[in-house]
Amino acid sequence: MFIFPKKSILLLTFFISIWGAEAQHINYSLIPKKDTINIYQEMLNDHSDDLMENHPADDIYNNMWTTDHVNPYKIPIDKMPDSIRIDCSHFVVPVPGPITSEFGPRRYRFHYGTDLRLKVGDSVRSAFSGKIRIIDYEARGYGHYIVIRHDNGLETVYGHLSEVLVTMNQNVKAGQLIAWGGNTGHSTGPHLHFEMRYIGNAINPSHIIDFNTGLVHSKNYLLTKKSSFYYQHEVKAVAAVKYYVVRKHDVLGKVAARNGTSVKALCKLNGIKMKTKLKPGQRLRIR
Ligand SMILES: [Zn+2]
């Protein structure tokens, strides 16, 4: 449904009242002209949409709207709602896929999204209706990316784009073309990195979407602290793992001493032998 912005309603009311005044032959000289002109000018000059219009799901986000950081909210999982129903009935799959990499732990970091195959220049669409919160570029991460806040309370992230086709604070509809897919940032081939978050905390998109059909599993997704954030121990496990990048002239004994471990432990962790020669740039797992 199209909702008139409050500003347009105010302007409309303003003009109707002038028209009404003319129609009723009200002596216009009684109205302080300067003030009305000032009010009208103020309305026209007011670009602070933040004050006039609400952002999607403002109640859930406590009126917080920032244009940087994918997760500026920093809500710990134990402070998340125990259970909440999210309306996913108007979902449109951003790209047809298929999945090339799932949400979950990776060797060096946790992967907070689902990777979907595409060709550079393929259409990327908004998953739900909402408003563009972030358009940014991260050379070592998302590349060109977009974050959208949706009316249903979810936020979605679209990464590695070749070209963004929307503007900041723009309202978008479910299925609206928002970008051309690409291979920018930390990416080893064209794909869409797609995240779904609720107050900053990532949800496995495959819990909500069946990427084989491009449809949602259910019109309502029941977010629960236990089932939606099941992966917390995996995040901790990935974070606990530490690597060391071998430098020139490094030997196992030196690496072990420098990192407070033993050669034996290093060999076991990395599946290597005591006599194995280290190569500069090689990653050794320390913990
Ligand atoms: Zn990814």
How would you sum up this structure, described in words?
The structure is a single chain. Helix content is 23%, strand content 27%. It contains eight helices and 19 strands. Strands 2, 5, 7, 8, 9, 11, 13 and 14 form an eight-stranded antiparallel β-sheet that branches. A three-stranded antiparallel β-sheet has the order 6-12-10, with no helix packed on it. It has a two-stranded antiparallel sheet with strand order 1-17. The relative contact order is 0.13. About 5% of the residues have low confidence. The site of zinc ion has 5 residues, from loops.
Q: What structural category characterises the helix and strand content?
A: alpha+beta
Bound molecules: zinc ion
Rg estimate, integer Å = 26 Å
How many helices?
8
Low-confidence region ranges:
18-32
Helicity level, as a percent range? 10-25%
Count of discrete structural domains: 3
What's the CATH H-level homologous superfamily of the largest domain?
A: Glucose Permease (Domain IIA)
How far the N terminus sits from the C terminus, by CA atoms, comes to 54 Å
Reported by name, the CATH topology of the largest domain is Glucose Permease (Domain IIA)
